[in-house]
Design a protein that fits this description.
With about 325 residues, this protein is of the alpha/beta class. The chain is built from twelve helices and eight strands. The structure holds the ligand C=CC1=C(C)c2cc3[nH]c(cc4nc(cc5[nH]c(cc1n2)c(C)c5CCC(=O)O)C(CCC(=O)O)=C4C)c(C)c3C=C and fe (ii) ion (2 copies). Pathway: Porphyrin-containing compound metabolism; protoheme biosynthesis; protoheme from protoporphyrin-IX: step 1/1.
């Protein structure tokens, strides 16, 4: 890192994450936070509780995000003490305002906030930005210079990190006798209205990630899908993963590699939606389903986070 950028300046990096409950008892309050204060129905609470129970009763999201923050702080500092990395969750603890307050108490000279979803969307990044701005106000931290990293879908080390995960999965499939397989890229689906109105660039952001990976690791055949359509009754971005699996089965495909590129760590949408839900669905269609390992604390991914921070400071 260029000394002129960091010298004597204490930089607080705040990783903004979704947040997930660590106990099923917290699910009603967690869902209420996601829905901006509106309580969910008993059926929705039961459905989500069953999914958490199926993955062992809690999400590993907090623990993994803490590991990412610790690794990033070590990587950025390289033995110095210039950067502190905090985590702030939008929907669960530690909340974004707790992270901002801690950074203020630690005397950070500037803050840089990075949303742990590489592709910008009004349904994710913009909500994190609003929560971050509210937190600055609540903590009277408005006089600290801040930068917000809105989008980093093709940060070079992020693409390297995903490509590394793909190559590992490809070797595994080939070792298991699957010389040909269908790769299905996924990101979280969102209600399609803002995309159709041209005010949410999420699809283009997704394509930046996907095209960056395909330039590094040629693959055929591949598919672009949207997973985990939510419970709001409205049109969601498609094709869904289920529809994509139907088409692959009809074409006579045998093995499928799900490649989730919108999430950077294991959590319910990976461990339940893919590993349990889509795997069962695929089996019913006569397909064998695999998935790439999540980035979690991959060293290349930590470099990507550091790269995004440096690019914005430089
Ligand atoms: C770009 C879009 C989204 C990302 C990335 C995302 C990540 C993410 N979501 C959860 C857990 C839940 N999300 C839920 C609802 C929900 N999520 C999105 C979009 C993204 N989520 C939308 C549009 C919605 C519906 C609208 C809303 O209710 O606000 C829910 C509630 C249950 C449900 O509707 O499915 C949960 C739980 C995690 C853990 C996560 C990334 C780590
Ligand atoms: Fe979500
Ligand atoms: Fe979801």
């Amino acid at each position: 890192m260029d000394d002129a950028i960091t010298q004597g300046v204490k930089t607080g990096v705040i990783l903004l994450a979704h947040g997930a409950p660590t106990r099923v008892a917290d699910i009603p309050e967690y869902l209420q936070r996601i829905r901006g204060g509106t309580a969910s129905s008993t059926e929705v609470i039961r459905e989500i509780t069953e999914r958490y129970e199926a993955i062992g009763g809690s999400s590993p999201l907090l623990e993994i995000t803490q590991g990412q923050a610790e690794a990033l702080e070590r990587f950025l500092n390289q033995g110095e003490d210039t950067f502190r990395v905090y985590i702030g969750m939008r929907n669960w603890y530690p909340l974004i305002e707790e992270a901002v307050q801690q950074a203020k108490d630690d005397g950070m000279d500037r803050l840089i906030a990075l949303c742990l979803a590489p592709q910008f969307s009004k349904w994710s990044t913009e909500r994190y930005l609003n929560s971050f701005n509210e937190a600055l106000g609540k903590c009277n931290a408005g006089d600290i210079p801040v930068q917000f990293i809105k989008s980093w879908p093709n940060q070079p080390s992020l693409i390297d990190a995903f490509a590394e995960r793909y190559r590992a999965a490809e070797s595994d499939l080939k070792a298991k006798g699957h010389d040909t397989f269908h790769t299905v890229f996924t990101v979280h689906s969102i209600p399609s209205a803002y995309v159709e109105e041209g005010i949410d660039p999420y699809v283009q952001e997704y394509e930046k990630t996907l095209n960056g990976i395909r330039q590094q690791v040629p693959m055929e055949p591949w598919h672009q899908a949207y997973q985990s359509q939510g419970m709001i009754p409205c049109p969601w971005l498609e094709p869904s993963v289920e529809e994509t699996l139907d088409n692959i089965a009809e074409e006579g495909g045998k093995a499928v590699l799900i490649f989730p590129v919108g999430f950077v760590c294991d959590h319910i949408e990976i461990l339940y939606d893919i590993d349990i839900g889509f795997r069962e669905y695929a089996e019913q269609k006569g397909l064998t389903l695999f998935r790439t390992e999540s980035l979690n604390t991959s060293p290349l991914f930590i470099e990507a986070l550091a790269g995004a921070v440096w690019e914005h400071l430089a």
